Amino acid sequence: MTGKLTVAGRKVLYTGAAGGLGTETTLAFLEAGATVVAVDNNPDKVAHLQEVCRQAGHERLVVRRYDLSDLAGLRAGLEATSAEVGGFDVVINNAAIYPSKPFEEFTIEEFQAVQRVNVDAGIVCVQVALPHMRQQSWGRIINIASVTLSGGWALLAPYVQSKAALVGLARAWAREFGPYGVTANAIAPGAFPTDAEKIHPDPEGYNRFILDRQAVKRRGHPRDIANALLFLAAEESGFITGQTLNVDGGWWMD
Ligand SMILES: NC(=O)c1ccc[n+]([C@@H]2O[C@H](COP(=O)([O-])OP(=O)(O)OC[C@H]3O[C@@H](n4cnc5c(N)ncnc54)[C@H](O)[C@@H]3O)[C@@H](O)[C@H]2O)c1
């Protein structure tokens, strides 16, 4: 590969864009010349994302505060936004909720609520984006999975289930959309020191636990995810589809 990855001019639909990994990645896509349609319903995080992008001088950020659990509202909103921006070229299904407790304490409704945000909303995003991608014979879909799918964690059953579904969907979409130039892949992040980690009762012990498991002896940075996403969204990755890329410092090797 030579030169810069080509994502300039692409319109990127990015769910959960105002989160710990999303903010840095949104900046990276804007820096690379893409337009980012950032879907996130957390007002404080969205305000922070807007401020960070404003300070960096980026104007191609489009914010939509849709609630991903309202699938009908999401579809209607995305249809309108798609018409406004001229279709989505790249879909990044990144938003997630991750309630944690023993399996037997989850109600079936709680399971379904996690699938709705983490998986079903992603299906809606792809259904809205697909006609444009098909028509131009080009598209990129990237589902964000997780190292937790490796089997190393308890107390996260609905979340891990949702990540398995996203990996499965990436494979199914890769097979079905490949003939018209649309690739679908997954990225499985390892453990990144975002806000969720700050509530850990023993931060130093947790840090050691992670570094012990990684081959690379530094903590991940959101930029590491941004770099992988830029690659899978770019022109240059067109021969890669149906894959899961572990971005975890060499933790899970399969
Ligand atoms: N941070 C890590 O270490 C790590 C590890 C493995 C996988 N991941 C995955 O990476 C992705 C991003 O993680 P993160 O650390 O940035 O998480 P995060 O919680 O910081 O970001 C998720 C974003 O999704 C948004 N969101 C949640 N529910 C929503 C809804 N109903 N409607 C609209 N927006 C909603 C939140 O507001 C938030 O900004 C997730 O899929 C997560 O599972 C993260």
Describe the structure.
With 254 residues, the chain is an alpha/beta fold. Helices cover 45% and strands 14% of the residues. It has helices spanning 22-31, 43-55, 71-85, 108-136, 157-177, 195-198, 203-213, 222-233, and strands spanning 11-15, 35-39, 61-64, 90-93, 139-144, 182-189, 244-247. A 7-stranded parallel β-sheet has the order 3-2-1-4-5-6-7, with helices on both faces. Helix 5 links the parallel strand 5 and strand 6. Helix 1 packs across helix 8, helix 3 (71-85) packs parallel to helix 4 (108-136) and helix 4 (108-136) packs parallel to helix 5. The mean pLDDT is 96. Bound molecules: nicotinamide-adenine-dinucleotide (NAD).
Spatial strand sequence of the major β-sheet: 3-2-1-4-5-6-7
Bound molecules: nicotinamide-adenine-dinucleotide
Rg calc: 17 Å
What is the CATH C-level name? Alpha Beta
* Largest β-sheet summary: 7 strands, parallel
Quaternary organization:
single chain
**Number of discrete helical segments:** 8
The overall pLDDT, averaged over residues, is 96
Distance between the termini: 25 Å
The tally of strands reads: 7
Question: How many independent structural domains?
Answer: 1
- One letter per element, helices H and strands E, the order comes to EHEHEHEHEHEHHHE
Salient structural properties:
single chain, 254 residues, alpha/beta, Rossmann fold, seven-stranded parallel β-sheet, 45% helix, 14% strand, binds nicotinamide-adenine-dinucleotide
